[in-house]
């Protein structure tokens, strides 16, 4: 208990210090994951698969809790496999919530028993990097396919011109990282959405309205564990375990090595608790995600203060506006959301560049200090092949589990049939190495 209290105090000091040093970037970073959150949350709410107000309230509370406890910009985002299946099948609210509770229960049990930590310890780093690279490229492909492709040139509130302008702004922010890109894009999109709603409100063909005051009224929902709901939950398990726990743990360590990295057990427990609580009240099934973490980091977030601010904002919206926000959110320009998703995907895909220099398994202790281990050209080729095989499986089949299995098989093939008389991952400088003996 004393160590936990000390950890919370340390996290709080860092959150306050970072927020005071760069408040604008922390606010901008908090908005970095909107490109993933808004499209799925809006469609699910419009279809009646979740409650928008309850989702905002509970996800806001979860943002506050993770910011205080973990101290890193850890996202709270939709469970994508469940969201996609629920949208495609127009699943009822009870079925969607049941799917989330199935995933959460399994992940929570694996975390409490320690099995999740054991599983993640034996997963090769190139496979983890492949999952991260595949997730990043998947975000980019999804942005082009579902958000940017349907756009026209002439529609005034959402068109390809806005997308090009947002992309040019993104390129500018690469050279000027202090520019709060996500904040500028969000405010611009909000203004365009308001103008579109106002314009449609004056038209006889639409009944869209601006948000109005409406106090949240919580209610209890009994999930319906049908075969389809259980199937959606099981399909989400590989994505949650690999991308929301394993990849997030590795990515947090890569991006913010000076901050305490949330353990896989803590991340899995967090995912389980969030959904065991929220899925009984109509909240969208949520998880953490490597893509969201990369996006929030890309746009300036460097501490838990960013998602604490986001959580407070979502909590206020859910408590006092709720479902009245649907028209405004539905009008948010897809052109701007699409570019934000592309930026998040690029940031996540960049993690693959540290595969052969800087990856966690290439560091070793020597005389009380961490030393980077040199590897041969053959070892680099093997690691690259394993990573790309994992990525290819994810992109080709649009399934993290298939990519994960393909990467493991590739890794096993190298270990089983590749140069059996020599340890391929042995440091040539070690005493007794075949290179030394030669």
Q: What can be said about this structure in brief?
A:
This protein is mostly helical and 438 residues long. The chain is 66% helix and 3% strand.
Could you explain how this protein is built, in words?
This protein is mainly alpha-helical and 438 residues long. The chain folds into 2 domains: 2-348, no CATH class; 375-418. Helix content is 66%, strand content 3%. The chain has 19 helices and 4 strands. The chain has helices at residues 2-21, 23-30, 34-46, 52-69, 80-89, 93-113, 115-121, 125-148, 160-175, 181-201, 227-255, 264-278, 290-298, 305-320, 326-330, 334-349, 377-397, 400-417, 434-437; strands at residues 77-78, 286-287, 363-366, 369-372. Strands 1-2 form a two-stranded antiparallel ribbon. The protein has a two-stranded antiparallel sheet with strand order 3-4. Strand 3 and strand 4 (369-372) form a beta hairpin. Helix 2 crosses helix 10 (181-201) and helix 4 runs antiparallel to helix 14 (305-320). It is globular. The N and C termini lie far apart (55 Å). 50% of the residues are buried.
């Amino acid at each position: 208990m004393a160590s936990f209290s000390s950890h919370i105090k340390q996290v709080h000091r860092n959150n306050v210090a970072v927020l005071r040093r760069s408040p604008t970037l922390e606010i901008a970073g908090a908005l970095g994951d909107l490109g993933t959150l808004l499209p799925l949350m809006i469609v699910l709410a419009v279809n009646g698969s979740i409650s928008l107000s309850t989702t905002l309230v509970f996800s806001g509370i979860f943002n506050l809790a993770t910011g205080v406890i973990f101290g890193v910009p850890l996202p709270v985002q939709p469970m994508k496999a469940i969201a996609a299946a629920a949208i495609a099948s127009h699943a009822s609210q009870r079925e969607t919530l049941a799917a989330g509770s199935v995933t959460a229960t399994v992940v929570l049990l694996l975390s409490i028993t320690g099995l999740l930590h054991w599983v993640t310890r034996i997963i090769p780093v190139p496979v983890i990097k492949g999952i991260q690279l595949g997730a990043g490229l998947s975000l980019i492909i999804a942005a082009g396919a579902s958000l940017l492709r349907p756009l026209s040139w002439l529609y005034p509130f959402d068109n390809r011109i806005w997308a090009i302008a947002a992309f040019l702004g993104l390129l500018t922010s690469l050279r000027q990282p202090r520019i709060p890109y996500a904040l500028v894009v969000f405010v611009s999109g909000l203004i365009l959405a308001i103008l579109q709603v106002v314009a449609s409100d004056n038209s006889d063909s639409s009944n869209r309205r601006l948000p109005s005051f409406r106090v949240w009224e919580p209610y209890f929902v009994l999930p319906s564990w049908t075969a389809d709901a259980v199937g959606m939950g099981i399909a989400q398990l590989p994505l949650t375990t690999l991308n929301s726990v394993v990849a997030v743990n590795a990515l947090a360590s890569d991006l913010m090595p000076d901050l305490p990295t949330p353990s896989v057990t803590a991340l899995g427990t967090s995912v389980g608790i969030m959904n065991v609580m929220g899925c009984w009240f109509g909240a969208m099934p949520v998880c953490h995600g490597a893509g969201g973490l990369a996006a929030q980091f890309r746009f300036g977030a460097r501490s838990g203060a960013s998602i604490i601010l986001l959580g407070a904002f979502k909590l206020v919206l859910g408590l006092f506006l709720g479902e009245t926000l649907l028209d405004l959110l539905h009008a948010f320009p897809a052109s701007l959301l699409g570019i934000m998703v592309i930026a998040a995907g690029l940031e996540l895909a960049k993690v693959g560049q540290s595969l052969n220099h800087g990856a966690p398994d290439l560091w070793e202790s020597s005389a009380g200090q961490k030393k980077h281990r040199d590897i041969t050209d053959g070892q680099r080729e093997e690691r690259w092949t394993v990573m790309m095989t994992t990525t290819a499986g994810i992109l080709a089949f649009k399934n993290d589990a298939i990519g994960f299995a393909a990467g493991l098989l590739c890794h096993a093939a190298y270990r089983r049939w590749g140069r059996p008389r020599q340890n391929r991952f042995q440091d040539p400088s070690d005493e007794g190495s075949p290179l030394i003996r030669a």
